[in-house]
Amino acid sequence: MLRTRGDALQLVGLRPSTGAATAIGIPRDSYVAVPGHGSDRVNAALTYGGPRLLGETVGDLVGIEPDYVMVTRFPFFEDMVDDIGGSR
């Protein structure tokens, strides 16, 4: 699963002290420099180097290196939303 192309890429910023959150979508077909692999679509970074390379590629694109990268499949995402008391 970690060596596939990402479908929906989101960069999420959280400020725990205030509870504030911001998210921006990264278009998966954005043509960018992928470190060590030339230029390709941003979602190819996951294929080339897993979550670490995807985080580095997105960080280079937006100028903020992510602290964490989370990869999920839709059924697991639904479970996560339910687990934190989301939509029922």
UniProtKB/TrEMBL annotation:
EC number: 2.7.8.-
Stored InterPro entries: LytR/CpsA/Psr_CW_biosynth (IPR050922), LytR_CpsA_psr (IPR004474)
Name used for this protein in its record: Polyisoprenyl-teichoic acid--peptidoglycan teichoic acid transferase TagT
Coiled coil residues, start to end: none
Leader peptide range in chain numbering: none
Class of this enzyme: transferase
UniProt key word Cell membrane: no
Protein family membership: Belongs to the LytR/CpsA/Psr (LCP) family.
GO molecular function: transferase activity
Organism name: Nocardioides aquaticus
Keyword Transferase: yes
A Pfam family that the UniProt record links to this protein: LytR_cpsA_psr
Cell envelope-related transcriptional attenuator domain segment(s): 5-86
Record keywords: Transferase
